[in-house]
């Protein structure tokens, strides 16, 4: 097994530990006795896992370690980290929780993309994944929203509460790009389907 794949597997294995720390800290908040070390550990795991994505990609490219296993594991690790973070922080009892529509939107978009890819592979025999600017923006803003919620970032004069207005705005931007990118992928999928003459 290549070094790049080993790093990816470690990233996947870190996800349950991340979820556990988020939940335990949330319970502490709910009981009025939050343990700050649990929040810091969860932040550390998230940062290291996110950073390792770039590291294993660099190793795979520069040391010719690209494998079919890596092409499967890497997106699982990436999406697994993002989705579990968004879902967990929506029900975690932290100072700020994501609104329910946010994880529903993110999960729905990814389900539609996966189902669309399966249909395209069935009808066309191939799938061309074209990364879009809106898709990259969605991922970036999702990461920023997760980081802001975990770091409990505050702006001068604004309290950190469940109705934290600037956090809601940040989540709204992430949701907007998530929706736009999802629509874009659906349109691109329809074009690929039409190009394969399977419109009937």
Order of secondary-structure elements: HHHHHH
Q: What separation lies between the terminal Cα atoms?
A: 44 Å
* Domain module tally: 2
- Would you count the extended β strands for me? 0
Mean pLDDT score, rounded? Answer: 86
Q: Tell me the β content.
A: under 5%
Shape: globular
Model regions low in confidence, pLDDT < 50 over at least 5 residues: none
**How many strands, what sense, and barrel or not for the largest sheet?**
none
Percent helix among the residues?
A: over 70%
The Rg value, from CA coordinates, equals 19 Å
Q: Would you write up a description of this structure?
A:
- This protein has 200 residues and is an all-alpha fold.
- Helix content is 75%, strand content 0%.
- The mean pLDDT is 86.
Task: Put the structure in a nutshell.
The chain has 200 residues and is an all-alpha fold.
List the helices and strands and how they pair.
Elements: H1 3-30, H2 36-62, H3 68-88, H4 101-124, H5 133-151, H6 165-195
Helix pairs in contact: 1-2, 1-3, 2-3, 4-6, 5-6
Which labels suit this protein?
200 residues, mainly alpha, 2 domains, 75% helix, globular
